[in-house]
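Sorry, explain these tokens?

___
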Amino acid sequence: MTDPSTTPESALRQKIDTSVPHSARIWNYWLGGKDNYPVDEQAGDAYTAVFPGIVTIARSSRAFLHRNIAYLVREAGIRQFLDVGTGLPTADNTHEVAQRLAPEARIVYVDNDPMVLAHARALLYSSPEGATAYIDADVTDPDRILAAAAQTLDFDRPVGLILSNILGHVADHAQARSIAARLMDALPSGSHLSVNDGSLGVDPVFEQAQDAYNSSGAVPYNLRTVDEITAFFDGLELIEPGVVPVTQWRPEPGAPTPQVIAEHGGLARKP
């Protein structure tokens, strides 16, 4: 395992504000994790009281990511991953899925929450053949992310870039597109982009719950139309079936008929 950019001690010395809900901790709560505070549980419960389907969205989003990673390793031959906006560790994190299939895989996790970084450093261990590293950086600073990631990843070889439920925290859509494009521009041909985000125009109850959440004092998360999510892949080659509800992206054989949910995602290859 490579040396992390942030140690658990230095991360924990940063202030963790437990007076306001935090999206990573709320997401962890919905996924059944324990790394959250009462304020996060209260916000999560208030959300599910309006829209119980958020738990399905959270878990379906995670399953979508697992299927993306498995495709990238098995079918695209990807052995390097840059996971921006990691969130708190749960079961089957990016490196665990990738290294189960290819022990030599190398993964860089990026987040700017001290609790996330401390937990990642303590819990996310690489296989001996591969590597994991952790970067303290904000998604709005792609140049910092790339400079730090280059210490672990070889940017002359294809990389799987993961932006899972992170671009919604960038309010301006043009800026969000610019971030995704800047990160992909630094990666070679054969690299892939995986994006999934909450979608507008599918479920008005979900949108009502999200509006309430955004006014609660938490960092807002902006839902986007399917066309806006699709625009993150401009200039790339979308892998079938394209941008779809995450439940419908290459479901496991024999799985029940996937329902339509207000969370869309896709995977695309850089020519």
About this structure: The CA atoms of residues 49 and 209 lie 9 Å apart. The longest strand covers residues 192-198. The two ends are 31 Å apart (CA to CA). The chain has ten helices and eight strands.
